[in-house]
Every structure is written in structure tokens, then in C-alpha cells.
Task: structure prediction
Amino acid sequence: MSADTRASLIRTLHASVVKEALEAHGRFLKGLPGGRRANLTYANLNNYNFEGVDLTEADLTGALLGGAMMARTKLANATLYGADLRDSDLREANLSRADMRGACLRGANLSGADLSGCDLREGVTAVQDDTKGLRILKHSKRPGELDYALLKGAKLAGAQMAGAFAQAADFSDADMTGVTLQGAKLVNACMDGADLSGANLHNADMAKVSLRRAVLVGTDLSGANLEEVDLTEVLRAPPPLIYVDDLPLHDVLDAHELFCRSDGRDGAIAKLESVDFRPLKRLKSRRLSGLSAPGAVFFGMDLEGVQLQGANLSGADLRGVNLRTADLRGARLVGAQMARADLSGAKLGPLKIAEDRFIRTDLTRAVLRGAILAGASAPRARFIEADLTRVRLDGCDLTGAELPAKATFAS
Result:
């Protein structure tokens, strides 16, 4: 498309006009008199500050939003068809069910954003050219710009992303359950730790894709190009029943719980290294103090209120686990994978084992990307070399805790 054609489409709006449109949109969303849906189609909003603004259902078709500050912006059900969002900051933004067909996301940071149900397929915008007839609008490539989007920890459940959008993108730890990527070009994409349960990757080009620790339960990979794909520690569907020394796992845990409840008079201590607990689905409020389960898999399970004081869970897979109000005092969680885990109100402080003797909760080198520790109690806990990227810590007691030298927390 010629520069003249693009220039004729783009509108330059005064800041007061944009402000008035946002105020009217706010009234529209509340059903108040004088409200109207924001119409910012083909507006030049490059580098604009929309942080935290509610643009739910707004029409931003073809808008220029390059470099815009849009962290935590609400764009649910918004129309962003053909919008230019390159280099924009969309961290933690709500883009659920938005129409983003044909949008340019090169260099955009969508880490932690909610794109569930979003339409990210390729789209075409045709414009009338007086001299050359119908022309196709395209986003021109700029020298030196990133040619991929950052989608670490994003929620993409049910999104549609056929086409070239996902090529070389970073989907680390993203929720991609049920996503449609049929025939998509994913060459060199990073999907480490992504949850692709139930995803459709039929005929997708996945050459050189990194899928380390990705979840591939019920994933359709038929016809996909898997040349040089890294499938290290990939998590597939567990067997319906797990046996430990010829005993069903639930019997072994019952015996361990009896041991805890009887102060060691009955039952037996469970040693369950690298065991997959997923067939049990939940361990809510179970009394499992002192459990030895290094390298075990608890992915996505419900462990709310579980008692795991002094447990050895080093290297365990606790990604996406519900650990709200869990008692993990004195637990050993060295190197545990805890991305997106919910530890709201959990106890992570020292465990008293004798007069003036305590065992501290050890989360050294644990991966807690996107985890929730809101209202948790973690005094004197060890987080040395832990990955605390986008961790929510509002109301968390970290008195005397050993934190990593460099840590990035969610606001």
C-alpha cells in the first residue's frame, strides 16, 4: 500500500477529543446518559498512555497504537481489526474475546495478558485506490524491529491463531488450553512450560519449536511438522491409576495420613519420588506432613488447605496448583516448578521442631513466574535465585525473607 493511501486513512485526533471519547465511553459502559461507544478507528494513537483505562467493547479498527502504554488496559470484546500494536506494552491487559484479526503485534509485550477466546487469525483490509483500484493494507516492516510478540504467561485458552502470528513468538508458561493453531507457522517459537491441553495443532509447522515441560494432554499433533522439536520433560496424560510398590497411590497416602494423625503409632511414611499424583485430582485439606515426594507431579491439582509441613517437594511440578491457605512451613521446595500456582494465604514461614530450633521453608531456585502469594505468610523463607517474575505479593509477609538480588513483581 502506498504511503498516500495510508495517510488518507489515518486520523489525527487532538488529546481533548480522545479524552472526551474515553469519558463518553465510560458512561456508555455504565449505561449513563450521554454515553457512547468509543470510535477510535484509524486514529493515530502511537505512544499514547492508556494504562489501566477501560476500553471494553471499544472500536479501534486500524488504529495506530505503536509503542502505546496499555498495561492492565481493559479491552475485552474490543475491535482491534488491523490495528498496529507493534512495540506496545500490553502486560496484564484484558483482551478476552477481542477481534484482533490482522493486527500487527511485532515487538508487543503481552506477558500475563488475558487473550482467552481472542481471534488472532490473519485478516485482510482492502481500500479503494483512485488510480490502482482495490489495494490491500499491510503493515510495513521496519528495520531492526522485533518480528515476534512476547506472550510469556499469557492466557490464550480458546484463542484462534491460525496463520503466521505465532511464528518465533514466546509463549513460555502460557495457558493455551483448547487453542486453535491448525496449520499455524510456529517455526522457532518458544512454548516452554505452556499448557497445550486440548489444543489443535493439526498440520502446524513446529520446526525447531521448544516445548520443554509443556503440557500435551489431548493435544492434536496429527500432520504437524515436528522436525528438531525439543520435547524435554513434556507432560502427557497420566495413567488412570498409579501404583507404588504394588499398592494404589490413594492407599499409600491414606497410610501416610494415618501416620500423621496418630503421631506415628499407625500407618506408614510415604516415599513417593517422581510419582504422578494427577489421577487423584485433588488433595484438598489432606494431612500429609513430612511427605517425601521430590520430583513428583501435581500439575493443576487442587491442594487447597493441604498440610505439607516439612515435606520434601524439591523439583516437584506444582504449576497451576491451588495451594490457597496450604501449610508449607519448613517445606523443601528447591527447584520446584510453581508457575501460576495460587498460594494466597499460604503459610511459608519457619517450622518449629524443638525449643529454639526451626526449619525454614526453602524455595531456592524455585520457578514462581506468575504465581499468587497475596496474603501469604513467608517470614524468613529462602527465595535465593528463585524466579519471581510477575509474582503477586500484595499483603504477603516477607519479613526477613532471603530474596533474589533481582526480582520483578507484578504491580
